[in-house]
């Protein structure tokens, strides 16, 4: 991963109208809290020194999932070329947290941003070898033009923010 890779990721997200913030691990928890609209649900974050705000529910019921305005998830890796984040599926089914709420906050380590699709497939292969067999790829806000004009947020988040951790 190079600085150019992160810059490329940032430019791709800009084109997708996705917010991106680069923060240190020490500042990440506060920034996540600022971006999250309540009620919020989330997946515990696997990054040292980064926690979810106390108001975020981490084991939501179906009703809490439906009512949530923000879903916060860690991202296994991101693909700079397309502005894509890879939300790894989990045994407890945490990936809906990135799909149901109107806002998704994806948290990724800078070192987990790969330059292109080929490198993304390499990361997938590594994950599959380690027993992870399902990933949700998200590129920008959900959108559809099935019924005419382009509409965002019909079948997923209409608002997406990515937090890039500058250090782990």
Automatic annotation (TrEMBL):
SUPFAM superfamilies: NagB/RpiA/CoA transferase-like. Residues 63-165 form the LUD domain. It comes from the Archaea. InterPro entries: FTHF_cligase-like_sf, LUD_dom, NagB/RpiA_transferase-like. PANTHER family: LACTATE UTILIZATION PROTEIN C (PTHR43682). This is Lactate utilization protein C.
């Amino acid at each position: 991963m190079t600085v150019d890779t992160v810059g490329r990721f940032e430019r791709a997200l800009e084109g997708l109208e996705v917010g991106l913030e680069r923060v240190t691990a020490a500042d990440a928890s506060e920034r996540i809290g600022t971006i999250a609209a309540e009620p919020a649900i989330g997946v515990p974050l696997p990054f040292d020194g980064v926690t979810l705000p106390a108001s975020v529910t981490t084991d939501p019921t179906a009703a809490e999932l439906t009512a949530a305005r923000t879903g916060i998830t860690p991202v296994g890796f991101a693909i700079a070329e397309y502005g894509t984040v890879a939300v790894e599926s989990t045994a407890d089914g945490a990936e809906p947290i990135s799909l149901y709420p109107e806002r998704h906050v994806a948290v990724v380590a800078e070192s987990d941003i790969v330059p292109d699709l080929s490198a993304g497939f390499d990361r997938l292969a590594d994950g599959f070898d380690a027993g992870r067999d399902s990933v949700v790829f998200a590129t920008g806000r959900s959108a559809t033009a099935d019924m005419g004009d382009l509409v965002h947020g019909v079948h997923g988040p209409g608002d997406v923010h990515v937090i890039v951790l500058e250090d782990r």
